[in-house]
Amino acid sequence: MTDDILALAREQVLERGEALRRDQVLEVLQLPDERLEELLSLAHDVRMRWCGPEVEVEGIISLKTGGCPEDCHFCSQSGLFSSPVRSAWLDIPSLVEAAKQTAKTGATEFCIVAAVRGPDERLLAQVAAGIEAIRNEVDIQIACSLGMLTQEQVDQLAAMGVHRYNHNLETARSHFTKVVTTHTWEERWETLRMVAEAGMEVCCGGILGMGETLEQRAEFAADLAELNPHEVPLNFLNPRPGTPFGDLEVLPPADALRAVAAFRLALPRTMLRFAGGREITLGDLGAKQGILGGINAIIVGNYLTTLGRPAETDLELLDDLQMPIKALNASL
Ligand code: SF4
Questions:
Q1: Is residue 273 part of an annotated ligand binding site?
Q2: CATH of the domain at 207
Q3: Which of 18, 41, 134, 264 has the most other CB atoms within 10 Å of its CB?
Q4: Which residue's C-alpha comes closest to atom 2 of ligand 1?
Q5: Which atom of ligand 1 is nearest to the CA of 69?
Q6: Is residue 332 part of a domain?
């Protein structure tokens, strides 16, 4: 028996496929920079062993942007801050066009996002019409991210054939009230529970670098492991001017990469996706380091309110690394 956390993780996670527990994740997050490469390499081995070499590519489109009544302190789409994002709706032809462009990149998932507390009737009708129009023209799975849901709304989305629902817990339960005050972590958890029960895939992640401690980062990884989502999008805070978190420091690159690897060890079989904030935290090399450190899903196109890297750059990278893009229905 060893007390070195990486030797232990190798045996527990890589060999046996058992996730690291919360206290173990914390130990990983506390590793010194000198051991970062060793950690990333182990996280990569775990991902290859328990998920395989495929990378899922997804597109994301904002159906309704800005003007949200909630106060998530990181979000430039809240109508409560002086952020520059103004409220706007996308029409159905533009939605279909975006789905077509997304499918062309090889993406298998197209996520329709709205900046709302939860959907109202008008939004759900728009989503239903959008899904039908996309179905008629594009071969792609459809995901939605429309905020908190009632049971009735969950059932409606399931009936529309929504394949996956994204709803982020954002941060550890113990840190949530420092990030959002207009709704609770438990309300978010309840939506996720109903989504999973209705048979949709659950996509749930959050944002790192919002002032949480390493203990809370480990707590968050353990929260997600308990939820057991199909996919976890990991964002790094990109401090947006005008939001309450506008003046926070960007997460240092080593901390961001350590977190990616630690989340992989806490979620050995989950799809782990680089979402927003990657460029500002990790720079140009970040994509490669992440994809060789536990990440196995990426977004093409823009990140809703800030521009990400162009799709081609990421797709070329996957090609260079000889990682195949997951094909549609490959898991059926
Ligand atoms: S609910 Fe979503 S869109 Fe609204 S402020 Fe929070 S993160 Fe932004």
A1: yes
A2: 3.20.20.70
A3: 264
A4: 115
A5: 4
A6: no
**204 annotated as ligand-binding:** no
Residue 144 annotated in ligand binding:
no
Residue 80 CA: nearest ligand 1 atom is 5
Closest residue CA from atom 6 of ligand 1: 72
Q: Residue 318 sits in which domain range?
A: 5-326
Confidence (pLDDT) at 307: 47
Residue 153, in any domain of the structure: yes
| Domain count across the chain | 1
Note whether 183 and 70 are within 8 A (CB). Answer: yes
pLDDT of residue 212: 98
**Sequence letter at residue 225:** A
pLDDT at 300: 77
- Beta pairing class for 271-274 and 206-208: unpaired
Instruction: Tell me what pLDDT residue 310 has.
Output: 58
Q: What is the DSSP string of 259-274?
A: HHHHHHHHSTTSEEEE
In terms of pTM, does the model score above 0.85? yes
Intervals of the chain under pLDDT 50: 303, 305, 307, 330-332
Among the atoms of ligand 1, which is closest to the Cα of residue 183?
1
The helix (H) or strand (E) run that includes residue 61 is strand 56-65
The answer to whether residue 77 is domain-embedded is: yes
Per residue in 201-242, pLDDT (tens digit) is 999 999 999 999 999 999 999 999 999 999 999 999 999 889
What per-residue confidence (pLDDT) applies to 309?
Answer: 53
Q: Can you give the pLDDT at residue 332?
A: 40
Using CA atoms of 223, 228, 233, 236 in order, give the dihedral in degrees to the nearest 10: 20
Q: For residue 68, what are the β-bridge partners? A: 78
Centroid of ligand 1 to alpha carbon of 78 (angstroms) = 6
Q: Measured from the CB, is residue 78 less than 6 Å from ligand 1?
A: yes
Q: Is 75 annotated as a binding residue?
A: yes
Neighbours of 79 (CB within 10 A): 15
Is 331 inside a domain boundary?
no
